[in-house]
């Protein structure tokens, strides 16, 4: 199953944080045994995800699985929990009995809550116990219910956020830049955004590398193609590439290939 082209979310239960954590954590999710069986039965399956620059934690509640990050493949054992950045294409090779609990942060969210910068995570698979207390991970895995895991982890993250809570000019500027880009209809380039925010192109570039780990041009172009491709897949007959700043469909199709590595219609 491939992200955007197919609804991979149907295999999971989701919870979106509220309050202070909502600005830093996109969601908590957990494999649904019932929904997985409904859609894949007893077959092996894969989940392919495109770059998002979002630090993502995977707590393994089931058997071993394989994780491919770019051209490298890793075997994740049953007792192994990991953190990745998702700065490139990521693919999980799953058994129908797999069970994974996911925590997906927004760019900069890991730093805001735990004080951990995300650029050093580029192309890495990090053992989760180097980021979260091993005792917390074990408690989260031992409780029976999805809701209990969420309550336990949210309590920890809120406590950590209060300890690290301070105004960070870098994160604030990046968040404001992304918000301005989205409010513009995803059409402003980094130079135009810098003008809107009374900054220089050099400043905006330096801040994005500091917080996200990549240039504003690359990150914002990925944000745009995600939104555009999602709209295209949802209803290609009503899709207007101009609404997302593309000159024509050829321009859009080229961006799809650059982002996903495949042409529209080649999803498996």
UniProtKB/TrEMBL annotation:
Cited InterPro entries: HTH_AraC (IPR018060)
Pfam families: HTH_18 (PF12833)
Gene3D superfamilies: Homeodomain-like (1.10.10.60)
GO molecular function, one term: DNA-binding transcription factor activity
Residue ranges occupied by any HTH araC/xylS-type domain in the UniProt entry: 168-268
Signal peptide limits: none
Protein name: Helix-turn-helix protein
